[in-house]
Every structure is written in C-alpha cells, then in structure tokens.
Amino acid sequence: MSRSQRALFIDWGGTLALTRHNRTVVDEAGHPVLMDNVAATLARERPRFDVCFIVSNQARISRGEISETEVTKRFVWANEQLGGPFTGWRLCPHTDADGCDCRKPKPGMFRDLARLYDVALSASTHVGDSEKDRDAAMAAGVGTFVWARDFFGWDSAPGRP
Ligand SMILES: [Zn+2]
Hints:
By secondary structure, this protein is α/β, with parallel strands linked by helices. Helices cover 31% and strands 17% of the residues. Helix 5 (131-140) links the parallel strand 6 and strand 7. Bound molecules: zinc ion. The site of zinc ion has 5 residues, from loops.
C-alpha cells in the first residue's frame, strides 16, 4: 500500500515557540511566545501540505518540571492562535536515559504519525532548529529538512534572546 499524504512536521521549542534555557517562554497570561513570522509563514506554506504536526521532545515531563497536560494546552493554544494549521501533535516525554524510540533524533514520532495518517514520508518536510531534528527526519525517511531560520525567514541564527 502506498501512502499518499504529504506532511509538514514542525518542531516546537526554538522553532514555533521561543525558548530560554530549554524552556518555553510564556507571557503574563501563561501563553507561549511564538517565534517571528510563524503565523505568516504557516498561512503561506500550510496549503502545500495535506497534514501538519508538531513533533516535540519534552524531556521536562519526565523530570517532573512540567505536566503533559500543560504542554498539550500550549499546543492547543498555538493551534487556535494560528487558525488551526495543525492536524495533531506528538511529544516525547522521555529523557535520553529512557532509551525510547520516540525522542529525536530517533524517528519514532514521525513513524507513528505516518502510520496513523497515511503519510508519505519521502514527500514530507520537517522544520526544526537543531541537529536532533535534522537527524530524526533523516532516520525516519522524511524527504526534506528545512532549518527553522530559513523556513521562517529569520535573519539571525536560532537562539535569539
Ligand atoms: Zn520518547
């Protein structure tokens, strides 16, 4: 059976949402601060894909520093703010020590989504800001990897203030 859907997989921290010291920066209302040009870029690029997913390592869940519910609430909020571009999301709550198959650079999250949503990985794209993102995309057979700074047209490298 050949899979048919083209997916846009997008990393969260440092790609969609501003992070500092590996944590999502939140505003006074507790909402994540989205990176520059995210809304305009997704409005332009999202129609080129059939489905779109946030794919995020969230090791702070394993360390008890944040709940999975809170992380999911942030994804839901971002989806509402951006006009509903996301078909869904996957997060890995584990740390390196857990040896799971989902923590990027492992390909598990991409493979799960591909199976569930009939995604043609070779025709799909991953946008991320780290080598773990790039390596996970490669391991999963995602056809295209784009650095977040190029996708969103940032002038400076990731890790802005
Ligand atoms: Zn995991």
